[in-house]
Amino acid sequence: MTTATAHEAHDDHGPARGLSRWLFTTNHKDIGTLYLLFSLLMFFIGGAMAMAIRAELFEPGLQFVNPMFFNSLTTMHALVMIFGAVMPAFVGLANWLIPMMIGAPDMALPRMNNWSFWILPFAFTLLLSTFFMEGGAPAGGWTIYPPLVLQTGDAFPFLIFAIHLMGISSIMGAINVVVTILNMRAPGMTMMKMPLFVWTWLITAYLLIAVMPVLAGAVTMLLTDKYFGTSFFTAAGGGDPVMFQHIFWFFGHPEVYIMILPAFGIVSQIIPTFARKPLFGYSSMVYATASIAFLSFIVWAHHMFTVGMPLAGELFFMYATMLIAVPTGVKVFNWVSTMWRGSMTFETPMLFALGFVVMFTIGGFSGLMLAIAPVDFQYHDTYFVVAHFHYVLVTGAVFAIMAGAYYWLPKWTGNMYNERLGKWHFWLSTISVNVLFFPQHFLGLAGMPRRIPDYSIQFAEFNMISSIGGFAFGLSQLLFAYIVFSTIRGGAKATDKVWDNPEGLEWTLSSPPPYHSFTTAPEVK
Amino acid sequence: MSEAHGGYYVPHGSHWPLVGSVGLTTLVVGFAMHLNGSDIGLSTMFAGIAIVLIMMFGWFGTVIRESESHMYNEQVDKSFRWGMGWFIFSEVMFFAAFFGALFYARILSVPWLGGEDASTHALLWEGYSAAWPTNGPGAMGGAFETVGAWGIPAINTLILLTSGVTVTFAHWALKKNNRGPLVGWLFATVALGFLFIGLQAYEYGHAYSDLNLTLESGVYGSTFYMLTGFHGMHVTIGAIMLAIIMLRSIKGHFTPDRHFAFEAVAWYWHFVDVVWLGLFIFVYWL
Ligand SMILES: [Cu+2]
Q1: Do the beta carbons of residue A505 and residue A186 sit within 8 Å?
Q2: Which residues of A form the catalytic set?
Q3: How far apart are CA A169 and CA A212, in angstroms?
Q4: Which of A110, A338, A519, B193 has its CA 20 to 30 A from that of A391?
Q5: Rounded to whole angstroms, how far apart are CA atoms A226 and A233?
Q6: Do B270 and B164 meet the contact criterion of CB atoms below 8 Å apart?
Q7: A21 touches chain B (CB under 8 A)
Q8: Is the pLDDT of residue A7 over 50?
Q9: Which of B28, B100, B113 is opposite residue A238, by nearest beta carbon?
Q10: A215-219, B115-119, B185-189, B204-208: which range is least confident on average?
Q11: What is the pLDDT of residues B184-239, one digit of tens each?
């Protein structure tokens, strides 16, 4: 009924053949694969920008790029990595896993699922095309603060509309996740029996639905301020540029949790498997996740301590922010307790999960330091902040995504990945990422500002070390791409359970699973 | 063609999402080109709008046909309900951004510009005394007057509230399977919706030509037009959706226990109604 071409080509239980399978698909696994591959592509595009940034910062002075282009690189690196790499990777994992984990045939709204994905390639084509426009790509930082961002050239409306499109995609994806989890669970799969990955995604989806529209509103106001004479962010008209920062960070801080809660979920699936013990404190994990999500709405101005807020604001946002350490601490202690006296083995997914726990905690601690308002006056907009959020997002979110990829790749493809290469990938990544980001803490404490292409010579050694780590980390990821694609192509056959005794409905399906996950709902006891 | 899995209908491949993406992209690229001064920007944008409309016809048409051939069981119906509910919540948050801007300006930035709690205003805008409404210390857009709450806005409030009642009467008629009153009350709702839009358009004209209240009238004009403008857009969309529901009712699409589309549009209409109440109170009245 929908399309003649798509229907001629498919038999009733398998995918359509050729390109139309991927363009028109409504299958959660196909769409999950598309999301994950798109994310990998964006990871390398954003990574290439990072390499250029580290090359420029290898030595003091201007080497390769002009300062304006350097600013474009930092701005676009962030936008591509956040909206193109990390978020789509999590949505891809959600697509692949949630129906299998809750015993559903597919996502609840399969056509909309296709649309959520197929907006993204268009949005990123728009965004990346701005590199070739008059005035260059956006260079005001990913936080797009006015009035600076209003100086963007022809790229400006394309930036705004690309963000609108990404927002539409995220909201539709999130609605689909919520509806699937609330409405598609197999009989007996009560809420408090759901795997933690499902729980964390449910809460993440609520965050997305709540804050992506706010970002859409914020960028719409930027657009009208630039082209239609409004004065939202102009003091002469009674507006305020700081107002943008408030609206932006009302989106921006929950966005941080959008990028880390699913990572918590992944790690909570992996650690019990390789510790051979059930997850410690399941319900406290659920409540901790919900508390983090709630708190994420009332801490946004910790990004703006230096902007000139009333004292009461500084204090409120400082204490509220520090409060988040409590539920986060609960999570870390639960992971550690899960491992306590477990019979542990250290396959690649477990290594990445452990790396996550240790290094995400480092990022959490530097976050606590930044939360202290009087101290933040020193750290604000320095490399200390850069080090902090890269620990959270690279060794946090990205490491969890990689842990998840290794953990479920045998299930998805039916083939085992090469364990020896996986371990190489882990150790190369872990060593190089610390060489890359750890020195940036010291650079920041010593006063090196972020987003500047040149620096004073006292910062030279640590920048050189950081760049060497950066190149090594970048190269190590080529190994990841090699491992993934060679696993898709072949390798030792994986069993249905893949691991020793993993928990969850997805392991009751064959490896690879049938095209439609659970055609009849499984029994959940 | 398409299978039921444990009763849950999972459609197979659809080209409409991709058509939608092409349409949306054409629309925004056209608009962006127009803003950058291109001559073909607007025509590209309208081509994009046309593609999006074709997509909506095709996509919704498919869903309606599937629904009419009883391919959706109760669980699918529930998915649609949850989906519509959370979509409306996302719309609420979109308006929240603009209401947030309004409150921020009224409670914080304008008083600060007038010297309350901060001293920086003395360097740039000494002599500005804060008041609401304002077009700021730079008097952006020149002197203006505001639209009084107890003229057209109050009438419009009555119109929208009445339309909320008529759509409920239509729902009651539908539940009793009385098609005549159903169509009648829907017609009344649609008529009230378009009457609202007409009065709003008249008011805009009056504000622009007689009151010098424009989009450029500082933060008052900005918040006034963005809030009422996006609301008016939503009323228009809601009224068009109600009109489609009316046509489907005439065709006999809905039964007393299966009429998700009707309810979804009714929810949307109530949402638009509630947003208006917020507008009436905080934009026009207080
Ligand atoms: Cu934050």
Answers
A1: yes
A2: 77, 106, 142, 169-170, 253, 255, 257, 268, 302-303, 328, 331, 450
A3: 10
A4: A338
A5: 10
A6: yes
A7: yes
A8: no
A9: B113
A10: B115-119
A11: 999 999 999 999 999 999 999 999 999 999 999 999 999 999 999 999 999 999 99
Residue of A nearest to B218 (CA): A237
- The beta-strand segments (E) located in A5-53 are none
Q: Who among A109, A158, A216 is closest to B83 (CB)?
A: A109
Contact B10, A26 (CB under 8 A): yes
Residue A269: both structure tokens together: 């699936």
DSSP A186-252: PTT--GGGS-HHHHHHHHHHHHHHHHHHHHHHHHHHHHHHHHS---TT-GGGT--HHHHHHHHHHHH
In this structure, what DSSP letter does residue A85 have?
I
State how far Cα B200 lies from the chain centre: 13
CA of B184 vs chain A CAs: smallest distance (Å):
33
Cβ neighbours of residue B237 closer than 8 Å, sequence gap 6 or more:
none
Nearest to A310 among B17, B117, B141 (CB): B117
Token output for A30: 């196909």
SS3 A261: helix
Rounded Cα distance, A216 and B90, in Å:
11
- Choose, out of B35, B51, B124, B213, the residue to mutate when testing the contact with A (most A CBs < 10 Å): B35
Rounded Cα gap, residues B123 and B100, in angstroms: 27
Residue A277: strand, helix, or coil: coil
How far apart are the CA of B38 and the centre of ligand 1, in A? 39
- pLDDT by residue (tens digit) across A319-351? 999 999 999 999 999 999 999 999 999 999 999
Contacts of B7 in chain A (CB under 8 A): none
Distances (CA, A) of B85 to A179, B263, B277: 10, 11, 20
Packing angle between helix A28-56 and helix A67-79, nearest 10 degrees? 150
Cβ-based contacts under 8 A for chains A and B: 263
User: DSSP readout, A288-318?
Assistant: HHHHHHHHGGG-GGGG-GGG---HHHHHHHH
CB contact under 8 A, A112 and B83: yes
Query: pLDDT value at position B2?
Result: 44
- What interface predicted TM-score (ipTM) does this complex get? 0.95
Taking Cα atoms as reference points, which of B51, B61, B63 lies closest to residue B20?
A: B51
Q: Decide if A179 and B86 are in contact by the 8 Å CB cutoff.
A: yes
SS3 content of chain B, % helix, strand, coil (to 5): 75, 5, 25
Do A104 and A185 touch, CB atoms closer than 8 A?
Answer: yes
Could you tell me the distance, in angstroms and rounded to a whole number, from the CA of residue A35 to the centre of ligand 1? 26
Q: Select from A155, A157, A139, A167 the least CA-distant residue to A49.
A: A139
CA distance B220 to B147: 11
Q: CA–CA separation, A334 vs A197, rounded Å?
A: 15
